[in-house]
Amino acid sequence: xxxxLTKKQIEQLSQFTVDELLGVIHDLSEKYGEINQYLxxxxxxxxxxxxxxxxxxxxxxxxxxxxxEYWKSHAFFLDLENKxxxxxxxxxxxLPLETVKITEKMIGEADDLxxxxxxxxxxxxxxxxxxxxxxxxxxxxxxxxxxxxxxxxHYLEVKSNCDYYFPxxxxxxxKAFVPREVIxxxxxxxxxxxxxxxxxxxxxxxxxxxxxxxxESNRFLHNGFFCFKYAQLLLDEFKTEEAVLVLExxxxxxxxxxxxxxxxxxxxxxxYENGDREKALNLCxxxxxxxxxxxxxxxxxxxxxxxxxxxxxxxxxxxxERGTISYLxxxxxxENWSAFESFLIEKMVDNDDKCFENxxxxxxxxxxxxxxxTLAQQGYPLSAVFLRRKLVEDNLKxxxxxxxxxxxxxxxxxxxxxxxxxxxxxKLIPSTLAYITALHEKHQRKYAFWNACVDFIPEEFTKxxxxx
Length: 468
Known about the structure:
Blueprint lengths: L6 H8 L3 H14 L1 H12 L2 H16 L7 H20 L6 H13 L1 H5 L8 H23 L5 H11 L8 H4 L6 H11 L4 H11 L2 H9 L7 H13 L3 H12 L5 H17 L3 H15 L2 H10 L5 H14 L1 H10 L3 H13 L9 H4 L2 H13 L3 H18 L5 H15 L4 H4 L5 H12 L3 H7 L5 H5 L5
Helix pairs in contact: 2-3, 4-5, 5-8, 6-8, 9-11, 11-12, 13-14, 14-15, 14-16, 15-16, 16-17, 17-18, 19-20, 20-21, 23-24, 24-25, 25-28
């Protein structure tokens, strides 16, 4: 049964009169009890009634005996989040103080709830994360309504009660609901007590003066991520020279790979913005040679004012030296399908089948299939056919009958693409009949596959008696 109405059904429904629609609602509510609850909760209750209903539902769920079976526990927290947290979110701005009260009660009782269930699935985190977001949103709305509300006191108390899981992005994600002066008060209160969170909040505030002081006094020491964020902020504020100094100092330190990667990319941008174009271009080449990240090639193209073929040859040469997979990945990434096909043609002419042996050891089938489709769309049917044939051969080699449907689809696509290959390129690849004949000789016992192909493979082959 369809879960959603079709476009035509929606149009039909829109033509119903008010009386007809009321009749539909009445009929549905008579037959399906859960619809009554949905209608009441979402359309027939005042906000205060909704809040009371949520509170009663939470109490009912909290009183349950508990369960240590993995899937039942997982389902419990998903259901609890759906029935309480999501409903509370719709009330956070309209009834902020009341929502703060009930969410703080739920947060305070979270540990007792978690003790009764198996929490290994992690769904409890989704529940608590959602609950905390509703709470901070409501607390911000309550403060805006009455600035006598002790936002900082509430924040620090709840944080201390669930410090083992208090998301660092809570204020960042909800800064639209929390006044800036309140965020600043929290930061100032945390100074000297929790300097790391004080720094994190300073980035939310984009407080350049405070962050500059922290950087100069080595408060960022051993935290490459904070240094990177500081450089990013400087660059955003057009302080390019300072950003370059921070990044160059950071580059010389030992960093986790993910931070180092971000630092290198930002340094290229910062150097260019600071007027040192040649150094930025040289870094693009240097960093590209290490990891073959095509983004450095794009930056090189973007920042080079008088580009020619010799300038970009460096990048192609580096990936060519690394082998087939690297070259195909790079040219596909920058969408140079002409170079992609030229490379494949070179290997075909040389009969270098060995270079393709590892395609499916390093590339996902979905990637190869996507490339083939794009190549056909961009006017390179030879490569499209070649890759589809490789997909068919790899599938049949695995001899998993459940996956033959994919081999059938790939073979049909290869036949479709074959119709667009030029006469010149047809000489580089076996004809359809020759290919299917060779494929059958190698995999003739895979009857389920061949029977599924009867409707679209050439008549010359079926007439030959290979398939009955």
